[in-house]
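Q: Structure for this?
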Amino acid sequence: MIGGSIGLAIKKRGLAGEVVGVFRRRATLKKALKRRAIDKGFLDIKDGLRGADLIILATPVSSIVSIGRDALKHTGPGAIITDVGSTKGWIAAELDKASAKLPAAFVGSHPMAGSERNSVEFARDTLVEEAPCIVTKTRDTDRKALARIVYFWKSLGAKVKVMTPLEHDRSVALVSHLPHVVAFGLAGAVPEKDMAYAAEGFKDTTRVASSDPHLWADIFLANKKEVINACRRFELSYKKILKALAKEDYRGIVDVLEKAKSKRDRFIHGRG
Amino acid sequence: MIGGSIGLAIKKRGLAGEVVGVFRRRATLKKALKRRAIDKGFLDIKDGLRGADLIILATPVSSIVSIGRDALKHTGPGAIITDVGSTKGWIAAELDKASAKLPAAFVGSHPMAGSERNSVEFARDTLVEEAPCIVTKTRDTDRKALARIVYFWKSLGAKVKVMTPLEHDRSVALVSHLPHVVAFGLAGAVPEKDMAYAAEGFKDTTRVASSDPHLWADIFLANKKEVINACRRFELSYKKILKALAKEDYRGIVDVLEKAKSKRDRFIHGRG
């Protein structure tokens, strides 16, 4: 979905001479060609890397490092490898290390756009437009490669922010991984017979619980420490409501809800 | 919002000779007239009740009982009073009692449709179409009045289910009140500076945290016991994910997420 969307966006904006996709499965390759998300597709990474200037790793978090190492080995000088993974600490540390003695550079990226629908059929060329995109910078990051990756995401219309992998993992645990834990927890808590009475509120609050369980188990594990920290913050906030409710403290409940609402409202209006 | 939407729907379907609104504020009355959600509006409940066959109480939960008592006193034989409140136990008990020696009948309703946007400007005539609508039945409920209320909501296109107030409060705590507690808790937990990196997942998961804090403090308090029970169920489900994560148990995490996802997916597809 995200790889296909980036392919469509690059082609729409004419940012590359050729968009080449590498796939595990021939069926996905065919779908991507049909969708015109790529100009050419391969099943062997070596074929796909030949002459590539920019390599975007759009695989599940758990395979980015191994595929990235492979890609670094088969890529020439001047080429840049980036990824779109939802965690950055481990990926950046491993691929910084792997690229140290090789001609290609690695810069981590995370376009904050996605969907619970995880397949090239759902790709769209506007996916990253106006979306936040975090690009990570470490002591080892090549400065020119960093500038080119920032320029690349800006060319696709994303709002780019550069930070360290740790800053990324902390923020993203809060705004993305935590909502997934909570949504899965919520969908898991409600007996199916009661769902018959669910309306839009339940549907929206649990939307991301329809995401791919394997992808998200990977992400939670790759960012375990920060996900657990974010969950602790959530529990404190959630328990404030329950404590005020147990005491039948109307004013106390309203205070907690008002703070949460006004923060969210400012965020929504800030985005326009 | 909900009162106005019902007014618009009744008028669109020609279900009443006249739709009369009663308001606390003249400004809202004017907006409702302008929006054509009502034919006539009053600020005094006695004026609004004159000759009414069906009275729908669309006020915050905390004032439904007092306004309902008032309405019962000023309503003649054959008239039916219903409400659209998000909790039913306390409301039904009090209004059953109040109607016992009066000519008008009370039947509790809860159309499960709404929005975080709480004003007549957001009213729409399709709000309750296809929405679940719970109608409550107690030992004291007049059977003919019950049948008329069921017929009324079906005429607006709602999917009606009759149950006891307690069954209502239990189910709705799970599918509506709990998601609100969780969404407010989540919006409250995330520091504003991190929200800059939030994408659609966060936006959807917290949407209902933009709801009115006073309305929701009322609802939580009116359904305290069931809300707390629903929260306990949520905590068990949420903690299963965290425990598997702490143990770095990939299979365990996937299992919990898969159960939650498949339940939600069946619910979404079941709705078509």
